[in-house]
Amino acid sequence: MSIELTGKRKRVRSRSDAELPKRIFAYLLLLIGSGIFLIPFIWLLSTSLKEPKSIFLDLRWIPDPVRWQNYPDAFKVMPFPLYLLNTCKITFTCLVLQVLSCSIVAYGFARKRFPGRNVLFIVLLSTMMLPAQVTMVPVFKVWSTLGFYDTFVPLIVPAAFGSAFFIFLLRQYFMTIPIEMDEAARIDGANTLQVWWKVLLPQAKPALVAVAIFSFMAHWNDFMGPLIYTTSSGKRTLALALWSFQGQYSTDWHLLMAASTVVMLPLLILFFAAQKYFIQGIVMSGVKG
């Protein structure tokens, strides 16, 4: 018995030794690829700390001298607290509405049996093939006719009607959760909404986090929506504020990059804080144990 175990250990060790060069090569490729993708970000940070006259003349990655004054100067150009408040209102309201609406629709497609369910789901997925630019003009006409032009309503209300991609993501995750959990909850007296709220949503935390991150990124970086539906300066968002640094004949690159760095920080913090759940939700790992 001990001889067989020793032989197995040797085979496993030799196999791992043979795979070691492949792993090293794969990690090197990943490091090189990561470095290439980080180049624009490093250039962004470098430019945000340079003097205006040395941005295109000084090609060094580390600025000399380092000009931290670019950051307070960038926020003097625009009312940053007001634009931040507007962006947070739109982003977090849309995030909550999309998570709730998409999860309840996905619950219906994943758990309920009704005539035409598959046809309706295919129709829902087909809407992802329709570019937003195609419906931009008629949708704008509808909101302006209703009297909601230059308000946050056209930017927030559509989130309450869900997103085809988010519904698909949550539906696929819900289908990995055992149906026996729903049946056990119904035996205990839970109704449909209670099963959705108390059984499926706690089990689908990774998928919900993935949807929340996608929604946060989309609305935090949304430029076209606020540009179309808002005109007054008091309703601008951070994405429009960054656009204000670009003039007709010149651009304040040092201020633009400093402001862009600050605007990008919440996205980085959110992703790294919820990275575990985000990846788990994307790969649809389902319930373990």
Question: What features would you describe in this structure?
Answer:
The chain has two domains: 2-48; 70-282, MetI-like (MetI-like fold, Orthogonal Bundle), CATH 1.10.3720.10. The chain is an all-alpha fold. The chain starts with a helix and ends in a 7-residue tail after the last helix. It has 14 helices and no strands. Helix 8 (179-187) crosses helix 9 (192-203). Helices cover 71% and strands 0% of the residues.
Give the topology, please:
Layout: H1 2-48, H2 70-77, H3 80-111, H4 117-126, H5 132-145, H6 153-156, H7 164-174, H8 179-187, H9 192-203, H10 205-220, H11 224-229, H12 238-243, H13 253-273, H14 275-282
Helix pairs in contact: 1-13, 2-13, 3-7, 3-10, 8-9, 10-14
